[in-house]
Fold ATP-binding protein.
Amino acid sequence: MSDMGHDFAFTGKTSVKRNRLIAFLHQQGNANRYRIVLLFIDEAQCLEQLYYEWLIDYYNKLDKLNITLVLILVGQEQLNAQQLVFSHGQADQIIQRFMIEEHKFIGIRTLEDIHVCLKCYDELSEFPAGSGWSFTRYYFPEAFAAGERLQNYSKEIFEIFTTLRQQYNLKGVFEIPMQHMTMAIKIVLLDYGKNSSKPQNWISKKIWIDSILKTNYIISEQRKNPNTVKEKKGGINQ
């Protein structure tokens, strides 16, 4: 109830709180014409079977009120293992209600993925709405007015990541976690944009390389594969 922003999350006995939660979810479901409540649970691999049994109780009570509870579980690979355990442990009621479909999140893998990401900062991050001011324009107004865009660096950024993976002998499928991609862009905007201590007119390849390295992308990839050779091979043209 506290996570949902309920004003009386800590008042009353457990049974009272449960009834209050059902009433709250019922109210939320009634507020949309589909009569659906979407409940997102992060780090879902930490949920034990008892917690799912509680959720089943909420699901059934809301169903009697003509409200559909849709659970979106977000978690690590262990979540798949839990599903397997439930299927072998006669807990089909959990799977049928909350684990019918699965989708694996992947990071950036292609040049087009990078282009789409950067384009959002150039064009789709307008604030306030209708103002024409995106992240790129705000942090690099003169360069933006001259036609410069982050998305123009898509190919170069792809090549930087590719080269770094080769230099550090990173194995496996080429993939850039969104955490590292967005962090690199954030570093570029905050450390080199107009509000930084040493603002730049625009971004150079060296700035991109330094920003990407500051995200600890290399260390993160090496931890995924302990057999990776940690010595850097050669250099990277800046």
